[in-house]
Design goal:
The complex is a heterodimer of chains A (257) and B (319). Chain A has one domain (17-248). Chain A has 257 residues and is mainly alpha-helical. In chain A, α1 (17-28) crosses α5 (107-136), α2 runs antiparallel to α3 (59-94) and α6 (143-167) runs parallel beside α10 (225-248). Chain A has helices spanning 17-28, 32-51, 59-94, 98-101, 107-136, 143-167, 171-189, 191-194, 198-209, 225-248. By secondary structure, chain B is an alpha/beta fold. Chain B has two domains: 20-227, P-loop containing nucleotide triphosphate hydrolases (Rossmann fold, 3-Layer(aba) Sandwich), CATH 3.40.50.300; 235-318, 2-Layer Sandwich (Alpha-Beta Plaits). Chain B has ten helices and 13 strands. In chain B, a hairpin with a 4-residue loop joins β11 (263-269) and β12. The chains are: A mainly alpha (257), B alpha/beta (319). At the A-B interface, α1 and α4 of A face α1, β5 and α2 of B.
Chain lengths: 257, 319
């Protein structure tokens, strides 16, 4: 039997599953309200850029402070939380995720597709916002380090929030608990937790990459700069593997339950 | 497929050549038991899953498709565990009852997405599926802007595009108008006649009668009855019905009623002058009652069946 052909006579093949999931993620997981919820914290990053002018230090040091305390600790996790919830948790809650799950698609492709889809959105929203914030703060030399730290931190966060989406239906609540209780509270006192935290590690990436970082932002016991990038990359891979394992055992009980 | 002569199914809940086997399956959500030691099977053709709301139909369908795990017992689709063997999903599709559809996708994009995930090689399959459910004209409209009936048909198209051998449909006729209902019933029957295992749930007996050759009735997560719809009807006809009768002289009417063959019991509430009449032959009682009242010179004020709803009939079946 001849293979089906397209209009110009080329053999017709269905789209690769991973690509189909990616396109689906971008088309379906980000309705206008979700975009608003992502862009709102991103605009907060710009306000933090303005806030740097109110700090009576050099522009670079002032931005380093607001970036560490405001952007990497608040803006990035909140925006990434909305993205991470959009690409999986929200769909599981509204009951339409079964369309994807009830296919012979390997679960690793589902997880990877959703993560890449969410990460691309993060790279095109959070990361530019952080870069613009550095410019607004009058610290152009911080643009590169801040954008690298935001990029690595947000893709890591998206992976974590996808994993949380695979474990619980209350993704937003558990994700907030992770950010504020585990990372901020526990990570603030326990270096072991800070070493695995996107907030602390993205701060460490940023601090490690800028010149003349304020001493108080350098936290002993966790890797800085490029080492912190490697650490977050490992965290991301481990979390994605965990998400894939959970995805295989996920219980999809429907929107009404 | 020919019936296996070595295994004549004596239990009407089981079929000779099962595609889907449910063996002593129990599912609970916290303290709520959704399915309780349910054993049944489904084979090629259309099978109806009948039961009142909360009977466990949706839970059973989710267990069959692998969306949820059974806490005890097992579910097998073509001999494989749908929960652990993802290859099963290549051959199976679910149309869920809830109205959730992916936001922002057109009907065409939805069917193409499913075709891509299932590696459907027939180029025209998405268009064909949309044509089958009469949605081709609105294929470029977003499914989240569709009416309930259209959403249901879009989900049916998304299921059909994968050409599944096992099709599980949870209340698929909800929201459909009479013409669409007739078309969908014909479609499901054609799929069943073509050798596919089609499992359709409903809480409307007449609907299931039109659709299915075989009916499995669930009540409170347990198997209440199974077999042809005639057998289910007969089983329901054999269940006692209760009729409330209010008359100006209830005591005299009660005395007259106990002499009727169709009446199995009468309780009288003198305060309200109300009688609760139990009968196995509701039709005969309905004919005899006015005549009896006239003979006894009693004026009937109200006659009302107490358990005419399908739910109460289902409840009687599991007593």
């Amino acid at each position: 039997m001849n293979a089906p052909v397209d209009a110009v006579g080329r053999p017709w093949r269905p789209q690769p599953r991973l690509l189909a999931i990616l396109r689906y993620t971008w088309r379906s997981c980000f309705p206008p309200k979700r975009w608003a919820a992502i862009l709102l914290p991103c605009s907060g990053a710009l306000l933090f850029g303005l806030l740097a002018h109110a700090i009576d230090q050099g522009a670079d040091r002032a931005f380093a402070n607001v970036a560490a305390e405001g952007i990497f600790s608040l803006v990035m996790p909140i925006a990434a939380l909305v993205i991470g919830d959009s690409v999986l948790g929200a769909e599981i809650r509204n009951g339409s995720f079964h369309l994807t799950w009830l296919s012979p698609t390997p679960t690793w492709q589902i997880v990877l597709g959703r993560w890449v889809g969410g990460s691309v959105v993060a790279l095109f929203t959070i990361v530019p916002a952080v870069g613009v914030a550095a410019v607004i703060a009058g610290s152009p030399s911080s643009v590169g380090p801040a954008m690298i730290a935001a990029a690595v931190g947000s893709v890591s966060y998206v992976a974590i929030f996808i994993a949380i989406g695979c474990m619980t239906r209350r993704t937003a609540v558990w994700s907030l608990a992770f950010v504020f209780l585990v990372e901020r509270l526990l990570g603030g006192v326990l270096t072991g937790i800070a070493q695995l935290s996107p907030t602390w590690e993205s701060r460490a990436i940023f601090v490690g990459l800028i010149d003349d970082a304020p001493r108080r932002l350098v936290r002993d016991g966790i890797p800085q700069g490029v080492d912190a990038i490697a650490r977050l990359a490992i965290v991301t891979v481990v979390v994605l593997l965990l998400a894939e394992w959970r995805m295989r055992h996920i219980r999809l009980s429907g929107a009404s339950d | 497929m020919a019936a296996n002569p070595e295994f004549p199914p004596h239990d009407p809940a089981l079929v000779a050549n099962p595609t889907v086997e449910v063996d002593a399956a129990s599912v609970w959500f916290g303290p709520k038991v959704a399915l309780s030691e349910l054993t049944c099977s489904f084979g090629p053709g259309v099978s109806g899953l009948l039961g009142p709301n909360g009977a466990g139909k949706t839970t059973l369908m989710r267990a069959i498709t692998g969306l949820i795990d059974v806490n005890e017992g097992s579910v097998r689709v073509r001999g494989r565990d749908p929960r652990r063997d993802r290859a099963v999903h290549a051959d199976m599709a679910l149309v869920p009852e809830d109205e959730a559809v992916p936001a922002g996708l057109t009907a065409r994009q939805l069917t193409h997405y499913l075709a891509d995930l299932h590696r459907v090689t027939e180029r025209d399959a998405p268009e064909q599926a949309l044509r089958t459910v009469d949605l081709l004209d609105v294929a470029d409209r977003r499914v989240d802007t569709f009416s309930k009936g259209m959403r249901q048909r879009a989900k049916i198209a998304a299921a059909l595009v994968t050409d599944p051998n096992v099709l599980v449909l949870d209340e698929p006729l909800n929201g459909a108008d009479p013409v669409q209902r007739a078309q969908l019933i014909t479609l499901f029957k054609q799929l069943g006649a073509g050798g596919r295992t089609v499992i359709v749930s409903s809480h409307v007996l007449n609907e299931v009668e039109r659709l299915a050759d075989r009916v499995v009735v669930l009540v409170h997560g347990r198997l209440a009855a199974a077999g042809g719809h005639r057998a289910i009807r007969d089983a329901m006809d054999e269940t006692p019905r209760h009729v409330l009768v209010r008359a100006d002289d209830g005591r005299r009417l009660a005395a007259a009623l106990v002499g009727l063959d169709s009446v199995t019991g009468v309780t009288f509430d003198p305060g309200r002058s109300e009688l609760t009449v139990s009968t196995l032959q509701a039709r005969e009682l309905a004919t005899a009652l006015p005549r009896l009242a006239q003979t006894a010179s009693v004026r009937l004020l109200e006659v009302r069946p107490l358990d005419d709803s399908l739910e109460s009939l289902f409840r009687e079946l599991v007593r």
